[in-house]
Amino acid sequence: WWNEDMEIKQLCKYFDKKEITIRKAIKKMCDKGFKNYKFLINGIVVISSKGVEWLSKNTFKQKYLELLEKHKMELTELYIERGYIYDEFFGRN
């Protein structure tokens, strides 16, 4: 799901949050012991893909839930494409 590093401006768009909110979340991540997810490239703060994942799961949970739902729908479509009966699968659980 998280396959790219992101700058703060990209994170603002990705999470639909203001820069100050993103910066606070990054500080929280670093305070929790994940400073290695944050680095500088040419003076620009960049968060690794692992850091984006951490922020999604621990700070911006709504985005994480949206991604989970999207992934679930992709798996459901794949399941149906392969000819399995969707309702029977869920009836077993």
Task: List its traits.
single chain, 93 residues, mainly alpha, 11% strand, elongated
Task: Describe what you observe in this structure.
- There is one protein chain.
- This protein has a three-stranded antiparallel beta sheet with strand order 1-3-2.
- The radius of gyration is 17 Å and the shape is elongated.
- Helix 1 crosses helix 2 and helix 3 crosses helix 4.
- The chain contains five helices and three strands.
- The protein is mainly α.
How many E-type strands? 3
How is the biggest beta sheet arranged? 3 strands, antiparallel
What share of the residues does DSSP label as strand, in percent? 5-15%
Q: Give the structural class.
A: mainly alpha
Give the uncertain stretches in residue-range form.
Answer: none
Helical coverage, percent range: 55-70%
Question: How many helices in DSSP terms?
Answer: 5
| Morphology | elongated
**What order do the strands of the largest sheet run in, or round the barrel if closed?**
1-3-2
Mean pLDDT: 87
CA-atom Rg in angstroms: 17 Å
Question: Distance between the terminal alpha carbons, to the nearest Å?
Answer: 26 Å
Query: Which sequence of SSEs, written as H and E, runs from N to C?
Result: EHHEEHHH
Summarize the structure.
The protein is mainly alpha-helical and 93 residues long. It is built from five helices and three strands, in the order E-H-H-E-E-H-H-H. The chain has a three-stranded antiparallel β-sheet.
Write the layout of secondary structure elements.
Elements: E1 6-7, H1 8-15, H2 19-31, E2 38-41, E3 44-47, H3 49-58, H4 61-81, H5 86-91
Antiparallel strand pairs: 1-3, 2-3
